[in-house]
Amino acid sequence: MSGTGSPLFDGDADGHCDPFRTAQREAFEEATGPLPPDMSWIAFSGLARTFKVRFPFLFGELRLPITASQLLSQVPPQSWESRGLIGMPFTIDAVTQWIVQRYRDQIGQRGLSATVGTTFFSLLESLLYEYPDEWLRVIGALTFVKKSVAT
User: Fold this and answer.
1) Which residues have CB under 8 Å from 55's CB, separation 6+?
2) At what angle do helices 114-130 and 92-109 cross, to 10 degrees?
C-alpha cells in the first residue's frame, strides 16, 4: 500500500500529517474496505517526499491475520483501489510476472506513472521482506529486455 499524507484527511489538530493515520486510511482504501485496519497489521517500508509534493508519501505493506477467502467474503473487491491484484498468489513468480507485464504496458503508453512505480516498489519491498534469501531470483525474474547475441 502507498499514498500521500493529507492534512485534510490525516492531520492532527494543528494540521500536521500523521503518518499512522495515513497508513490506516491507505489500508482501508486499498485493501480492507469496510474492515477497519488495525495498526498492528501495517508495516512501514518508508516515508518520503516525491515529485515536489509538500506532503509525505508513505509506502509499506498490510499483513491481514485472515485468509484471502475470509477477506473476500467480508470486503467487496470493487471497493479496492488495487483490484488488479485480487487472487494473485504472493509468490516470486506471480508477483514478478505481474510487474513485468504492467511495466511493459506502461512503457508502451507513455512511461511509468508515479502510482505504478510506487506499486512496483511496494511489491518488490514486500518480496524482499518475505523471501530475503531469494532476492537474486527476484532480480533475475525482472528481466525486461533480452539482450541479443551477436553472431
Assistant:
1) 4, 5, 6, 7, 17, 49
2) 160
Give the three cell numbers for residue 47: 516515508
DSSP state of 91: S
Distance CA 77, CA 71 (A): 9
The domain spans of the chain are 1-83, 88-145+147-151
Q: For 13-22, 31-40, 102-111, which range has the lowest pLDDT when averaged over its residues?
A: 102-111
pLDDT digits (tens, 9 = 90+) for 51-90: 555 666 777 777 888 877 787 777 666 555 555 556 677 8
Instruction: Decide if 144 contacts 23 (C-beta within 8 A).
Output: no
Question: Residue 3 in 3-state DSSP?
Answer: strand
